Amino acid sequence: MKSKLLIQILAVACLLTTTSCVSFLEKVFFRANGSGTYSFSVDMSSMMEMAGMMGDEMDADSLLNELNMDEAGTMAKLEAIDGVSNVRPEFNKETNILSMNFDFADIKALNAGISAYLHDSTQAEIIQYEIFTQKGNSIERNNLNLLMDTFQKSMMQGSEEEEDEFSMEFVKMMFSDMYYAVEIEVEEGIKSFKNEEYERKDDNTITWKTYPFNELNKKENISVTIKKK
User: Fold this and answer.
1) Domain span at 23
2) How far is Cα 154 from Cα 144, in angstroms, rounded to an integer?
3) How crowded is residue 49: how many other Cβ atoms within 10 Å of its Cβ?
4) pLDDT tens string 167-183
């Protein structure tokens, strides 16, 4: 994902539109054999509204191209990873939700796919992160949040470079409605999980949600340990 470009687009969209700024949803589904599906979605309503206000009609293909999610960009990087398959960007015209989805053969492929997709485009090389680990009937997610780390880093740099025009207080106001959510689903069912910031959605699924620029609804710990049934 072209993180820096996405941040710039969303910042302008939040300023010019009346819709809720933006939201992110990361979903992981684990099958019993260790394989599964990963999905990362972005609500592009603000961006689409901004385009409409400017008289531009943005279709799915141009949107994917702008965000480097076409066959020559992110898709190619993901498809080159051993164990990653069925890479498919999707854009729902009714909800304005943009998603990148892929299947993974095992935890190693999942981590490689996330590392490639949420890569900070300001860095030359893709850093490989071990975000998920699996031992026996236990699945662990560490406390790394690659996109939000990049997002907040960019916001801080902006406030330092343009203190009067782009202060952190202004950033907090501009992105106060933005949230980042995680949904983890396990095929066998979830026996227990360790992290009180997560909530149980159903027998198989837990969720976590933070508003990073809203102190009243901000959560800090995205890590969790899941015991499967």
Assistant:
1) 3-228
2) 17
3) 16
4) 666 666 667 778 889 99
